[in-house]
Write a structure and sequence with these properties.
Layout lengths: L2 H22 L5 H15 L4 H4 L6
Helix pairs in contact: 1-2
């Protein structure tokens, strides 16, 4: 894994961790959470993140 891939993986995981907390607190809906996941999967193209993605589309 390159340094850039590691950085992107870390950014994806951090972003989704924050989004998950927002969903759990009722600040965003499940649909919004899935939209965020889709956007950041596309942006960061994580290697391991796709294995853990909670999006129903994956």
């Amino acid at each position: 894994m390159s340094e850039e891939q590691f950085r992107d993986e870390r950014l994806y995981q951090t972003t989704m961790s924050m989004a998950k907390r927002m969903k759990e607190k009722g600040l965003i809906s499940e649909e919004e959470y899935c939209q965020i996941d889709t956007i950041f999967l596309e942006k960061y193209k994580p290697i391991f993140g796709t294995l853990c993605s909670e999006s129903p589309l994956t």
